[in-house]
Amino acid sequence: QVQLVESGGGLVQAGGSLRLSCAASGRSFSTYAMGWFRQAPGKERELVAAIRWSDGYTYYAASVKGRFTISRDNAKNTVYLQMNSLKYEDTAVYYCAAGRLHSNVVPTIAYLYDYWGQGTQVTVSS
């Protein structure tokens, strides 16, 4: 049974930092990409960052590039999202997801991800 368990969300002031963690279990993710999505009220779920588990290749949305860093720890089967210089508009529920690679391409669309965590709330106060 595949499980993705997020942690690390919370309330932070604008300009602050948070680190999200996603512990993955239940299968090998060597042919998967791990993504962090977010969804704010009334908005569509969007990909924030993704990492290819095999070689660490990363993808970032333009809105977070330079502020967020995605990384993985193979030994712990855990993916992290370090979020710095947080803005009010970063407020959302953040989800960890695992999506199968096709031709080694990192998927950027939510429906291409097979497994999802339960989500963790990130609230940035202005």
What proportion of the residues is helical, as a percent range?
Answer: under 10%
Please state the CA-atom Rg, rounded to the nearest Å.
14 Å
Q: Mean pLDDT score, rounded?
A: 96
Major sheet summary line: 7 strands, mixed
Q: Helix count, per DSSP?
A: 0
User: What is the H/E string?
Assistant: EEEEEEEEEEE
Question: How many beta-strand runs?
Answer: 11
N- to C-terminal separation?
A: 40 Å
Structural class: mainly beta
Low-confidence stretches: none
Could you outline the blueprint of secondary structure elements for this entry?
Blueprint: E1 3-7, E2 10-13, E3 18-25, E4 32-39, E5 46-52, E6 58-60, E7 68-73, E8 78-83, E9 92-100, E10 115-116, E11 120-125
Parallel strand pairs: 2-11
Antiparallel strand pairs: 1-3, 3-8, 4-5, 4-9, 5-6, 7-8, 9-10, 9-11
